[in-house]
Design brief:
Helix content: 25-40%
Strand order of the largest sheet: 19-20-18-21-24-15-25-26
Number of strands: 28
Distance between the termini: 74 Å
Largest sheet: 8 strands, mixed
Radius of gyration: 31 Å
Shape: globular
Length: 861
């Protein structure tokens, strides 16, 4: 009778495996074999005598030899040999003259029971859970809209950060939808490689065709074929016109067909189009600055700005059934209400880092970002002519001017020479960040903890061996390059300085090449500083990059985070002993910001706007974000990690009275988009109420109807024009658009003027713990009528039809309450010591901290 030890299995389980290795003795050949041993190397060592002084082989790859259908059956190395023979490859025994990619493509084919393959497809990986969720949500939405509104195109946004895998996931969506014609339009043609490789190398898309407008030798694809077609092109190409205003002849075929799916890649570049601008208060200084900044960075990056402005699916003559928008920073699209909640899939930085903690696996490669902010000393500001009391004015501090043109020995012009206007201050800053100058002017102020500085702290020096410095403009980059090469800055000359700005640096791959060359074949041994004012800040990967220095004002969150996430590219190396494993070379990356107010404001914007859950408080959103992106702040005396409440306090207390007043005169408080105006027009009572607002009667009783009709006429004229140049139609269209914008602006201004009465009412009433709607309806109805000129029921009706933006009202009311209390506390007055809540527009929130020392109460939505 067998014993227990005899019955229970002992030893290691056999695992059928395929392995591939090359040998210096047989260059260009790969040995493809199989073994059932768990340690592949032991089997290979048996084929190479141990008496050899040095092993001449290199293990390239190995994996299991089971079929992918779950049957449990296995295949052999002979099956791969036969597949490679069908591919026309030369074999001698188990040795094959081929590339590793071709050998792996044979493995992928055999694993899926294919004996012959038309194209080399060596990629075979499934969708990750979040990618599968994106495909399912989007496909279900498109299918639902096809049933409900079959004659209207449907739209969906993927708010997905870098490294989500948008190309592979988009193709899986197209496959799920059974889409036969897919058009990919991008604002960044340099991203084409990933779109092409994922389609042509992954086995899931065997038989799919790819066409690019950038490959001139490619023939136009057949549209009658049943095989799916993906067409890739840039906006500037497919939307471009000749000098007569006609579509380019080579692109006419793109405009003649209806696409099953149109994909708009890097959509944040196109969200500044005319539609978006018309819905925003483009008269405000803030939005004008954001637009200017976005334009500057796009142009420096080689992006056709005007092509981005031109996109509007209802007007551009490229027609599609479904539209998919891809962006990692779609702030503008979300702010304008272009997409509602059920049209958005989210995969943000905090989602990725949460998966890294709970799931591990592929997410482990993604570095954790750390933001370090520094309150710079006042004496640095005193060294320059202008000092922004709201923060460190980086654009002024790093302002540079052209001082001369250097010349060669023959007197010919060689290069433009620039210098900082405040060079002494910049030089002191360079000394400070490497720890060679006190961070206080006289060095007498004691520090509780010396701040960690990027070029001094030993914990940061190696991790930030490769940094990017984001400066205001080309002149600033030129001046910084010159200053870093000054004899006084010998420390920085241990780094290779690359000036990646202006036309001299080229665009796309041309701009990237010198940076990669400077990093060399072993970036662990080299050190670089890359100077840029826009190039390489989006759509490129610099894996060794460890730190980013924000040295310019950024009013646009798109610009800020597109640039910041460049530093988060994963950096791994294949394990020397096991080619199936990766060693992570970059676990943490850093953003250094010298304008704390701005930096923390952008953090709040990212955490709040990209999390579309309206039921979550801002505090909770910020807390979730900084749980995975720690923020260390140097406040002049110590460096410490800040929490969500401190961040919001810091941002809120930076609000000036002027900015607060401007907020109540903002177009974002009112909605004058076509949908809202149509609702007003369809509701006679609402239309009559609008006319009661001061100044509206002077506009005429038909003002709303006129705006809606003109919007319809603009669309009709654009459809009639089509691809043809028609000067009379164009002139008519221009006139109608001008009148349309003028009338809508007039309506907007009247509503904004009404909104400015609300803070007056809040100041006059002493009720703070009730929502403003309750105060208006129940407690101070007559006061509201006297201040605004509108009855309670009338105001309530306008709220219901959406004329006023509740979310923006809530935010403005909360900031008003904080500023009001902070101002009164400063004078020693506090009328609300017993209050436990603050009333907003339609709700109330708790006061989470008492009012002390002039500090505004903390209260979060």
């Amino acid at each position: 009778m067998a014993t227990t030890e005899q019955i229970l299995p002992t030893g290691q389980r056999t695992v059928p495996q395929i392995y591939m290795y090359d040998d210096t003795s047989f260059p260009g050949w790969i040995k493809i074999g199989q073994t059932t041993r768990s340690d592949v190397r032991k089997r290979i060592d048996e084929q190479h005598p141990v008496t050899e002084p040095h092993k001449t082989y290199r293990l390239l790859w190995y994996d299991n030899a089971f079929y992918a259908d779950g049957s449990g059956e296995s295949f052999s190395d002979h099956d791969l040999h036969e597949c490679l023979r069908h591919m026309g490859k030369e074999l001698v025994g188990e040795w094959c003259k081929c590339s590793l990619r071709e050998a792996k493509a044979a493995y992928v084919a055999v694993r899926h029971r294919q004996t012959q393959i038309e194209t080399v497809r060596d990629l075979d990986y499934p969708l990750r859970p979040e990618q599968k969720q994106a495909v399912t949500q989007t496909a279900d939405y498109f299918a639902r809209m096809d049933g409900e509104e079959p004659n209207r195109p449907s739209h969906y946004l993927w708010n997905a950060k870098m490294r989500f895998g948008k190309t592979f996931t988009t193709y899986q969506l197209a496959k799920r939808m059974n889409a036969k014609r897919v058009l990919v339009l991008t604002f960044k043609p340099a991203v084409e490689d990933s779109w092409r490789d994922d389609l042509l190398r992954h086995r899931d898309f065997d038989g799919w065709r790819y066409y690019s407008s950038r490959l001139e030798e490619q023939q136009l694809p057949s549209l009658s074929s049943s095989k799916p077609l993906v067409v890739f092109g840039s906006f500037q190409d497919y939307l471009g016109r000749d000098r007569y205003g006609n579509i380019k002849p080579k692109n006419e075929w793109v405009h003649r067909i209806e696409w099953d799916l149109i994909v708009l890649d890097e959509y944040h570049f196109g969200a500044w189009n005319d539609n978006a601008k018309s819905l925003l208060d483009m008269g405000s200084d803030e939005d004008k600055q954001r637009l200017k900044e976005a334009d500057e960075v796009m142009r420096e990056s080689g992006i056709d700005v005007e092509s981005g402005r031109a996109w509007d699916d209802s007007e551009v003559p490229i027609k599609g059934k479904h539209y998919l928008y891809l962006s990692g920073t779609p702030f503008r699209a979300l702010a304008t209400g272009e997409f509602v909640e059920n049209q958005i899939f989210n995969w943000t930085y905090q989602d990725e880092q949460a998966a890294k903690e709970t799931v591990g696996g592929p997410y482990m490669e993604m570095p954790t970002m750390v933001m370090m902010t520094y309150q710079m000393p006042q004496d640095l500001g005193a060294m320059i002519e202008q000092w922004d009391m709201d923060g460190f004015d980086l654009n002024e501090f790093f302002r540079a001017e052209t001082v001369a043109d250097s010349k060669d020995s023959n007197g010919g012009r060689q290069a433009t020479v620039a210098a900082f206007v405040h060079e002494k201050a910049v030089q002191k800053w360079l000394d400070i960040i490497r720890g060679k100058a006190p961070i206080f002017g006289d060095g007498s102020s004691p520090l509780n903890v010396r701040p960690a500085l990027p070029f001094e702290d030993s914990r940061l020096l190696d991790r930030c061996a490769h940094t990017m410095w984001f400066l205001p403009n080309v002149a600033s980059c030129d001046a910084m390059e010159a200053l870093l090469h000054h004899p006084a800055n010998g420390f920085y000359q241990n780094y290779t300085i690359i000036n990646c700005s202006g036309s001299k640096a080229g665009v796309g791959v041309d701009a990237l090449r010198p940076v990669r060359e400077a990093m060399g074949d072993n970036p662990l041994q080299s050190r670089t500083i890359t100077l840029t004012c826009g190039k390489l800040t989006t759509g490129v990967t610099l894996r060794p990059l460890g730190g980013l220095l924000m040295l310019r004002n950024c009013s646009s969150p798109e610009t800020y985070f597109q640039t910041a996430f460049r530093v988060q590219s994963p950096w791994t190396a294949t394990d020397k002993d096991d080619p199936t494993k990766k060693n992570i070379l970059k676990t943490t990356c850093y953003v250094f910001d010298f304008a704390p107010n701005r930096a923390l404001r952008e953090v709040v914007t990212y955490a709040n706007q990209l999390d579309i859950d309206c039921n979550r408080r801002i505090t909770d959103k910020v807390d979730a974000f900084i749980n995975f992106l720690p923020i260390l702040q140097f406040d002049g005396s110590s460096m410490k990690r800040v929490d969500a409440t401190e961040i919001l306090d810091f941002v809120d207390n930076g609000t000036s009275g002027t900015l607060l007043a401007r907020r109540w005169n903002s177009a974002q408080l009112v909605n004058v988009d076509n949908a809202t105006l149509q609702r007003v027009l369809d509701n006679p009572e609402a239309l009559a109420t609008i006319m009661k607002i001061e100044g509206f009667r002077a506009l005429g009783s038909d003002i709303i109807e006129s705006i809606v009709n003109k919007a319809d006429k603009i669309k009709r004229l654009k459809r009639e024009m089509g691809d043809k140049k028609n000067s009379s139609k164009k002139k008519e269209l221009s006139a109608v658009e001008k009148e349309y914008r003028s009338k809508r602006r007039e309506v907007q201004e009247k509503l904004m003027k009404f909104a400015t009465r609300i803070p007056i009412f809040m100041y006059l009433t002493d009720y703070r713990e009730e929502s403003l709607e309750d105060v208006i309806r129940k407690l101070e109805p007559s006061l509201f009528g006297r201040v605004t000129g509108l009855a309670i029921d009338d105001f309530d009706l306008l709220l219901r039809v959406g004329v006023f933006n509740r979310a923006q009202m809530n935010d403005a009311i909360l900031k008003f309450r904080r500023y009001e209390d902070a101002s009164l506390a400063y004078t020693g007055v506090n009328r609300h010591t017993s209050d436990t809540r603050i009333g907003l527009m339609d709700s109330t929130v708790p006061i989470e901290a008492r009012l002390v020392a002039g500090k505004a109460p903390i209260s979060r939505m």
